[in-house]
Please model this.
Amino acid sequence: MNRIHIAPAWALNESEATPEANFMHRRAFLRGMGYAAGGALLFSGVACADREKALAGVKKYGRPFKRNEKFKLDRPLSKELDTVTFNNFYEFTTVKDKVWQHVGKFKTQPWEIEIGGLCKKNGKFDLDAILKKLPQEERLYRFRCVETWAMAVPWIGVPMREFIKWAEPTGKAKYVRFESAWRPKEMPALNGWTDRFPYHEALRLDEANSELTLLATGLYGREMPKQNGAPLRLVVPWKYGYKSAKSIVKISFVEKQPQTFWNMANPAEYGFFSNVNPKVPHPRWSQAREWMIPDKFSFRDTLIFNGYGKQVAALYKGMDLKKNH
Model:
């Protein structure tokens, strides 16, 4: 099996990372556009009025969802325009600040979710019908990308443990697998790349049952923008961002550990667990620090489990956290 290599749409100082190159298949995948090393602000050359188009047609919720005050932040929220115009979504493009410009043809209504595997609720269900049966709330979470950039986002969504209760997995279920939409006619970067997509991720069932795990349906008081993973995405705040599958169309309960997209692509660099850990460097850059979007020079120390150790450390008791899992 050939390993995938994707060139990213981000750039760090040379002291922080070696640029990725040719990271996606035996034929070169779309190359991402880097940013000038001397520029502190990623969006300094993009007019605010143009970036506001990223929210065109994204509805605000008619009523605010109650904020769960249990989940607090140690930093200011990222600005909404930064969050919706700087995204990884390779199905559309590898250029992070242009994903929103390529999602216009992507249809998110109506939306069906297929529930399968070791659970009682097998079948295809209308997402809106499911959401009417489950509680939603707002939570403020840190978000950490494996590429070392970070955000702080007010997500809206369903606690994953409530969805699990609704789906009623059997006692044999040990993992939850998530599969993203795969529509080449609506996702321009997918054309010709049929052997790797759809994107797929997975969690252990106890991880999915964590009080932190969220099936997100919106952010900043709005429905989820397409570029952020509309209409339903996973949010697992103690793991690197690629674990949070976007535009989910299928959720399966299984007994054996599933394969995951990036672990299949390059197992030496991307483990199954992918917990944020400042002491475990990526093979090509340090994870000791993170920089807050949009300021490339606004560094903070990376926190173990992205600062959520009190909630999740017990899930990994006995595991050697010095290794790339």
